[in-house]
Amino acid sequence: MKDFFQKYKSFINYIGLGYIGVILNIVLSILMMRMFDSALFGKISLGKSIFQSYEFSHLGTRFGLDRVLPHTKSIKKRSYLFASSFYFTLFCSLIFSIVWIFFDIKNAYFYSFFFIAGVFSSLSTLYRVFYRTYIDKTVFISISFWILIFPILLQILAIYFWGLSGLLYSNFLTYLIVFIYCSIKYRINLKINITSFKYYLKKIFSIGFFLFLSSIISFLALVGDRFVVAKYWGLSLVGDYSVIMFFFVAFTTLSASYTELIMNNIILNKDPSYIIKQIKVVFILSIIFTIVAVPILPYFIEFLIPKYIHLVFLMQLILLGGIIYSVMPILNYYLHAVDKRKELLAINVVSTIIYFIGLFIVLNNFHELRYLIYLKIFSFFLVVALTSYYFFKSKKNVSQ
Questions:
Q1: What is the pLDDT of residue 7?
Q2: Ordered DSSP codes for 157-185
Q3: Continuous H helices in the chain
Q4: Cβ contacts of residue 220 below 8 Å, gap of 6+?
Q5: CA distances from 235 to 113, 148, 230, 287 (A)
Q6: CA dist list (Å): 105 to 92, 97, 112
Q7: Taking 60 as the threshold, does the pLDDT of residue 4 lie above it?
Q8: Which of 144, 185, 153 is nearest to 11 (CA)?
Q9: Nearest residue to 249 (alpha-carbon basis) of 178, 295, 318
Q10: pLDDT tens digits along 51-78
Q11: Coil, strand or helix at 320
């Protein structure tokens, strides 16, 4: 037993960290649901979506790091790769902020707390990406604690004692603290001349750009649709929709965390049989999680947030839909590893176009969340089916 825990120590620690984060997010969300009405919760959800958009401020360079760093042994070259992505991400994050200011200039002050936090979060995440490529995951897990757990913990305390203002100010202050801590504690040399900057930026940008486009289109379908829903149905229904989708995010944390830990093996080995084995593991874990979660969810909601008890069936439904979607992180990383990024982009473009066509039909002809959830689950099946097709197609080519 001791050998088992030693062998899987990193996996157990990181998955545990991920679910501590999920629990803290649940606590934070429950506090907001209890303290704010649906309209204000919907507005905060849009702010959170703005914050999440900064995950893409690297414009693909972070994905390039994922692909290149595992093969790069030189410390100097590794620091050059990191510095190139760092400065480029900083520049793009500032451009993002200018865009968001003009997105809703009347509420720019309110949303500024989220996009300032997004700038610092995007830069801190690069440290996670850098150390994630090492076989020893100790530093990666340590950084993950500061990025995933520390901000949420302080936000819970801030919202409990100071309400909305506590949430807003703690949101950007915590990520500022995290960035300062990471840049000092896990310092990476950021000195780079302009020639090296251009060379390494071009290298990681060219590798990661198609995956970036694919990811941002996927983001539009998973999160960006809330802006459209808000326009047609109002902030109150966006709040209800966000409550339902929160449980989907909590559910898929398991597969996303697991995939991060095996990313190096996927990138370096490119072995289809290994991918199939890992998909089975994630699928089985997801089914077990669902079997446990679905029956207890009504009691959980009734006890903690009874005003959302009418949404329980849709929460259970989105959990069931999440089972099939749980395999997506592994499939995405594999197709990235075998340089099928254009195919990934095509998959996401097609599935997102179909989803948004369905979305506009639902928003214009129905006014019930259940139809939106049905559509969302359909989109999960569609994108997994298309991605699986390209996986088996690439698997066939590898075996030949």
A1: 47
A2: HHHHHHHHHHHHHHHHHHHHHHHHHHHHH
A3: 2-7, 9-35, 38-53, 61-68, 75-103, 108-132, 138-144, 150-185, 194-219, 225-233, 235-269, 272-304, 312-325, 328-337, 341-365, 369-399
A4: 352, 356
A5: 19, 27, 5, 33
A6: 20, 12, 10
A7: no
A8: 144
A9: 318
A10: 988 988 988 898 899 889 988 889 999 9
A11: helix
CB-based contact 332:387 (threshold 8 Å): yes
* Torsion of Cα atoms, 24 then 30 then 35 then 36, to 10°: 110
CA 53 distance to own-chain centroid:
10
The residue to which tokens 């047609």 are assigned: 232
Q: pLDDT of 161-190, one tens digit each?
A: 999 999 999 998 999 999 999 999 999 999
Contact 39, 236 (CB under 8 A): yes
Which of residues 266 and 313 earns the better pLDDT score?
A: 313
Each residue of 94-141: pLDDT tens digit? 999 999 988 877 888 999 999 999 999 999 999 999 998 887 788 888
Nearest to 61 by CA among 31, 29, 88, 42: 88
CA dist 248 and 251 (Å) reads 5
Q: Is the C-alpha dihedral spanning 266, 267, 269, 272 positive or negative?
A: positive
Kindly state the tokens that stand for 282: 């994630």
Q: Which of 177, 156, 122 has its CA nearest to residue 32?
A: 156
**Local structure of 51: helix, strand or coil:** helix
Write phi, then psi, for 368 (nearest 5 degrees).
-130, 135
Question: By mean pLDDT, which of 23-27, 47-51, 187-191, 369-373 is the weakest?
Answer: 23-27
Residue 398 has what pLDDT?
Answer: 56
Nearest one of 105, 84, 297, 324 to 194, comparing CA atoms: 84
Q: Which of 153, 147, 115, 149 is nearest to 132 (CA)?
A: 147
Helix (H, G, I), strand (E, B) or coil at 193: coil
Distances (CA, A) of 14 to 131, 255, 358, 381: 14, 12, 37, 28
